[in-house]
Amino acid sequence: xxxxxxxxxxxxxxxxxxxxxxxxxYQKLGFEIFIEKDAGLKSNIDNDEFEKNGAKICDNISxxxxxxxxxxxxxxxxxxxxxxxxxxVLICLANPYxxxxxxxxxxxxxxxxxxxxxxxxxxxxxxxxxxxxxxNIAGYRAVIDGAYEIQKCxxxxxxxxGTISAAKFMIIGAGVAGLQAIATAKxxxxxxxxxxxxxxxxxxxxxxxxxxxEVQNSESYDGVYAKEMGDEYKKQQEKLLSDTIKNxxxxxxxxxxxxxxxxxLITKEMVASMKKGSVIIDISAVNGGNCExxxxxxxxxxxxxxxxxxxxxxxxxxNDASKLFAKNIxxxxxxxxxxxxxxxxxxxxxxxxxxTLIVHQNKILKxxxxxx
Length: 372
Fold this sequence. Notes:
This protein is of the alpha/beta class. Helix content is about 30%, strand content about 20%. The strands form four sheets. Strands 3-2-1-4-5-6-18-19 form an eight-stranded mixed β-sheet, with helices on both faces. The chain has a seven-stranded mixed β-sheet with strand order 11-10-9-12-13-15-14. Helix 6 (about 200-205) links the parallel strand 10 (about 190-195) and strand 11 (about 210-215). The chain is globular. The two termini are about 35 Å apart. The mean pLDDT is about 90.
């Protein structure tokens, strides 16, 4: 079997879908490893390091793509012009609900596309869960960026010249990224509060030493993912956020609804009420952003408030993010490999496979991904 790792072509993408230590593990599964030239450079992995570990560096992937059984990328899927081997497998973060045209193009090739962001939330999928591993990195990095951007110290300091009060951080969304942001900000000495529509998040937030702020409303929700709430709840939520946000030094927003545009939670009026020098880090920028003023991929200044909308937060810690991502993909590939026969065997009844397989045998398998 032959496996190819693609070089990412998105300017904000610094990760690579394989790590040095996994090259030999793939070989033990029965793979010959090809890596597109310079695929690891932005993650500080040179071509010769991959070669020393047994991989072959490929200058021109079009020359070998028709021999490749498994193709890996972080999020590169615009490769429909290549001459694939029939029934080849492509595994990546496809962001399918925002790239339906590209999914349609891939469906015209006889390959199978697995979108790892569609993994089911079941216990045996946890070690494959790329969203969780990358969200952890994103939450951490958001706090580091926030600490860098504000002209304040994070912890309280008592000095002979006077006392410096601790910085105030507000985290919107207490999922994996939000909880890591809370933990990181607390370790750095900030005063932290957090909001989430899920009442079940309160215990987790409090356990990290942060204050949970919540809407006092009968419309309670305890699901795994956030969801869109009713109009009355939204009114109360807006007032709660408006009253809280004006006193914060850093606001980190992480709120996403699966497969939908990010909800607007921070209005222009809220930003106008914030102190000069305060910062908004909008992790959800890639899906539109939680702040009304966020510009994807940019850092802007609105009346003295910085709004940062970098589109790829895990990529800002590319080396470690790549290691975690690569391990997640390796764990996934073990699900589709017959280790005895050294061949690809896909169990279409497996819940992990059914959830993530979106293109197969020239068909788009999920109705809501089809273009009408």
